[in-house]
Amino acid sequence: GLYGYWNDEVDHENGYANFGNFNLQRAVADKMVGDGCNVTIMGVRDVLGTGSPNTIHRHLQVWRSMRPQAA
User: Fold this and answer.
1) Which of 9, 16, 28, 71 has the fewest Cβ atoms within 10 angstroms?
2) What is the pairing mode between strands 10-11 and 16-17?
3) Which pLDDT does position 70 carry in this prediction?
4) Three-state SS string across 14-63, please?
5) Exposed, middle or buried, 12 (CB in 10 Å: 0-12/13-18/19+)?
6) pLDDT, tens digit (0-9, with 9 covering 90-100), for 2-38
């Protein structure tokens, strides 16, 4: 199932948790934006039902850096 991808094992070489986690969290964040919601650590965690706030925070920082900036 969807939550089977959740895995908080850290890739110590890159300092990021499992890339599958990032993609899942990114999809949740994108949907939240599409629904007109503010993207927050706890909001993403509530949707997924699990996850380390620290890991979600790191992933949201990367996600935000990848988003186009408003003109």
Assistant:
1) 71
2) antiparallel
3) 62
4) CCEECHHHHHHHHHHHHHHHHCCCCCCHHHHHHHHCCCCHHHHHHHHHHH
5) exposed
6) 343 344 444 444 444 455 688 888 999 999 999 999 9
Q: How far is CA 49 from CA 6, 34, 41, 54, 66, in A?
A: 10, 20, 12, 15, 25
pTM: 0.68
Per-residue pLDDT tens over the stretch 41-66: 999 999 888 888 998 999 999 999 98
Cβ atoms 26, 32 nearer than 8 A: no
